Amino acid sequence: MAEKTKAASFYDLEGTLVSTNLVHTLNFYARRQQGLFSTLKKSVSTIAKLPVFGVTELYSRNVFNEYFFQSYKGESEDRLRYFAEELFEDVLKPAIFPGTMDLIAKSKKLGHEQIVVTGALDFSVAPLISYLGIDVFAANRLEFVNGYATGRLLPPVMASATKATWIRTYAEENKINLSESYAYSDSISDLPMLSIVGHPVAVSPDFRLKQTALQHDWAVLDLK
After folding, report:
1. Is domain 8-221 given the CATH code 3.30.1050.10 in the classification?
2. What is the pLDDT of residues 149-178, one digit of tens each?
3. φ, ψ for residue 9 (rounded to 5)?
4. For 93, phi and psi rounded to 5 degrees?
5. What is the DSSP string of 23-41?
6. Per-residue confidence (pLDDT) for residue 36, from 0 to 100
7. 95, 154, 165, 157: which is closest to 125 by C-alpha?
8. Distance (Å, whole) CA 77 – CA 28
9. What is the pTM of this model?
10. Is residue 219 predicted with pLDDT exceeding 70?
11. Half-sphere exposure at residue 206, Cβ-oriented, CA atoms within 13 angstroms
12. Cβ distance 92 to 125 under 8 Å?
């Protein structure tokens, strides 16, 4: 007798279910630095890096991650985790797209497991994941030494093909049928993730993903 499998819905997070991105989270933490000088220095530094963030993201999401998360070097783990709930209330919760909760509710009604695979930091999105009623999430994790961030990410780094690899492994270990599963993203960088499921969905997609979705007759969704 064949072993029973189930389906799942895999979501990118920022830009797909919420309108924020990684820079919004970094700016939030920069504004909560101890001391006015530290706050101004961090904010100015973040603004100055924005063009470089944009270029590296277009070139390679993996290169972007390596460069972007260096901005957290020296940050206290305790402070980052302490402000996570405030980050959720002030930045992430107001940014949830109007159609997000309905999409998740419909997916749950189909009996799908709800899974987020995101390049955001684990502690920064944990309250949001709980609020959305997501079953499982995989996110990037900062390396901490003696309680302070080194600016490096612990492997696996959640970006591009790594997301697809994580999904394949999770699906195999948890008897999930990817042919019956859905994946949602707004970015062409998540093409590997979208390509391994039977039902890929482009959510308010960037230009390249929209063109790909149209060429392959994928569903295009707007949650705004």
Report:
1. no
2. 999 999 999 988 999 999 999 999 999 999
3. -115, 120
4. -60, -45
5. HHHHHHHHTT-SSHHHHHH
6. 33
7. 95
8. 15
9. 0.85
10. yes
11. 11
12. yes
